[in-house]
Design goal:
By secondary structure, this protein is an alpha/beta fold. The protein is 51% helix and 13% strand. The strands form two sheets. An eight-stranded mixed β-sheet has the order 5-2-1-6-7-8-9-10, with helices on both faces. The chain has a two-stranded antiparallel ribbon with strand order 3-4. Strand 3 and strand 4 form a beta hairpin. Helix 15 packs antiparallel against helix 16. The chain is globular, with a radius of gyration of 20 Å. The two termini are 27 Å apart.
Length: 345
């Protein structure tokens, strides 16, 4: 049995708390919001964000960050991406050298263009930071619906330890050393999911959705490989797998926000209606900035930015995507592999 602190009591943190308790581990869940912790203590349920998932009696809930962090075998950082840096900084005084921290949020910091694991490593240099990502809606994980996911770590022993920690008969875990590729796929698929939702809101069909998914993963892979990620990551669970589920499911807050925007809502109106953090909005500017920095064409990400932040109409953005210069679908894959990094383990 492991003693695990989960930092963040939203839908994903709560679903993982339920899963890990079923796996036999002792779980402490932290939230900065007193009313959220009181709700969890009283009802054993995250009524606002994960209704219907009843949490086990032996789970501990607290607003005391030191209680949630100190002397834990593993810490799971499950706060929304805009709060990753500030939360990691508050955790730092209580973190021991070599502390295993698993980031499960998805995003890129707009001001620095850093991934979330890079932020955690910067704020908590003593920590051993990994990531958990893949096609995994909290609403389904919390119901025990079979799910497959990837743990990314620079250290093979850590990856295998975490694989054993999370693995169950309904939660299959693979491991990978491509932490950067996993995080880029996780963050940027939310931007493409906004585009997919916008297309739905405009009344477009399955053809359009398929185009956005396939061309979206092509954009993400181009950027990821240019930054040092591996091509197989983007065509695996944390790339195309996560992109499919996020673009197709009504569990996806990014798709739901996109639908509202496609129907004429502003970005702020859509985010208020969804009532949860729409990570793609925060990753859109960062993704576009990275495309400029690395000289990579990302027309879907570019058009999403114009709709979100420049007042461009959604229909005009789709029209511009359709009428761009003619292209070849695939370049020789050997050209992509030339820039791939070696697998470290």
């Amino acid at each position: 049995m492991a003693n695990i602190g989960i930092i963040g009591a939203g839908s994903w943190g709560t679903a993982l708390a339920w899963l890990l308790t079923n796996n036999g581990h002792q779980i402490t869940v932290w939230s900065i919001m007193e009313e959220e912790i009181q709700m969890l203590k009283e009802y054993r349920e995250q009524k606002d964000k994960l209704p219907g998932v009843i949490l086990q009696e032996n789970m501990i809930f607290t607003t005391d960050l030191e209680e949630a962090v100190r002397d834990k075998d593993v810490l799971i950082l499950a706060v929304p991406s805009p709060h990753t840096r500030s939360t990691a900084a508050k955790m730092a005084p209580y973190v021991k050298t070599g502390q295993k921290i698993v980031n499960v949020a998805k995003g890129i910091e707009e001001s620095t263009l850093m991934t979330l694991s890079e932020i955690i490593e910067q704020e908590i240099p003593a920590a051993n930071v990994s990531v958990l990502s893949g096609p995994s809606h909290a609403e389904e994980v919390g119901k025990g619906i079979p799910t497959t996911i990837v743990v990314g770590s620079k250290n093979k022993e850590t990856a295998e330890y975490l694989q054993n920690l999370f693995m169950s008969h309904v939660f299959r875990v693979y491991i990978s050393s491509d932490v950067l590729g996993i995080e880029l796929g996780a963050a940027l698929k939310n931007v493409v999911a906004l585009a997919a939702g916008i297309a739905d809101g405009l009344g477009y069909g399955d053809n359009t959705k398929a185009a956005l998914i396939t061309r979206g993963i092509a954009e993400i892979a181009r950027l990821g490989i240019s930054m040092g990620g591996r091509i197989e990551t983007f065509y695996g669970l944390t790339g195309i797998g996560d992109l499919i589920v996020t673009c197709a499911s009504m569990h996806s807050r990014n798709r739901r926000a996109g639908i509202l925007i496609g129907k004429g809502a502003s970005m702020d109106e859509a985010m208020n209606e969804v009532k949860m953090v729409v990570e793609g909005v925060y990753s859109a500017k960062a993704g576009y900035a990275l495309s400029k920095k690395y000289g990579v064409s990302m027309p879907i990400v570019e058009q999403v930015n114009k709709v979100l932040f420049e007042g461009k109409s959604a229909s005009d953005a789709v029209g511009e995507l359709m009428l761009r210069d003619k292209k070849v679908e695939n370049i020789d894959l050997r050209q992509l592999y030339q820039n791939s990094v070696e697998i470290p383990w």
